[in-house]
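User: tokens in, sequence out, please.
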């Protein structure tokens, strides 16, 4: 597809304005390359399916303003979608983000090493229409991960259902997560029944 720009020079039109129009048209025709931080957000959405800006900020150690800017850009580019309706505002609930079709396609392109289970990516195509109960369940799994990261100083292995889908040795139905970790800061695990 070729874009053509017609510019009529006029005494009242500044050259910077013309440059801006040409630059805008030229950049819109190119494929956008995600930054490492944006890929980190996509990977988080792949693992947990849904996330809020606050949870993304807590897990990625990016400040909330930066996260919101990245989420807005990624939404505008079609990589992610958002659940945020009137009821969210009334109940003061945060917006919930999920991976959109373009984001799923991007991860499929990056899947040379088999890191992403194709069955998980296929099931994410329907995330826009998921029930509130399902979304809240996924957010609870993500909140659990965030708490474990704090308690174990980031030394925790947390594999989600999306990641486990590619492993044949896990029983079906898959668990929400498989967790392993060791404490370095005195956050001790106590055996059951030792109260």
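Assistant: Sequence out:
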């Amino acid at each position: 597809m070729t874009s053509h720009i017609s510019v009529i020079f006029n005494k009242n039109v500044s050259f910077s304005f013309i440059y801006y129009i040409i630059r805008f048209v030229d950049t819109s025709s190119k494929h956008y390359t995600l930054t490492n931080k944006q890929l980190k957000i996509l990977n988080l959405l792949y693992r947990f399916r849904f996330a809020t800006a606050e949870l993304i900020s807590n897990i990625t150690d990016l400040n909330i303003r930066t996260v919101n800017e990245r989420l807005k850009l990624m939404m505008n580019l079609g990589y992610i979608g958002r659940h945020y309706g009137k009821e969210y505002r009334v109940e003061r609930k945060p917006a919930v983000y999920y991976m959109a079709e373009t984001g799923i396609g991007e991860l499929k392109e990056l899947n040379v090493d088999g890191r992403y289970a194709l069955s998980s990516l296929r099931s994410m195509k329907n995330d826009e229409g998921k029930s509130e109960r399902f979304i809240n369940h996924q957010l609870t799994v993500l909140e659990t991960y965030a708490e474990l990261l704090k308690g174990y100083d980031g030394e925790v292995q947390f594999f989600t259902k999306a990641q486990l889908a590619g492993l044949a040795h896990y029983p079906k139905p898959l668990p929400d997560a498989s967790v392993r970790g060791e404490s370095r800061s005195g956050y001790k695990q106590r055996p059951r029944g030792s109260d």
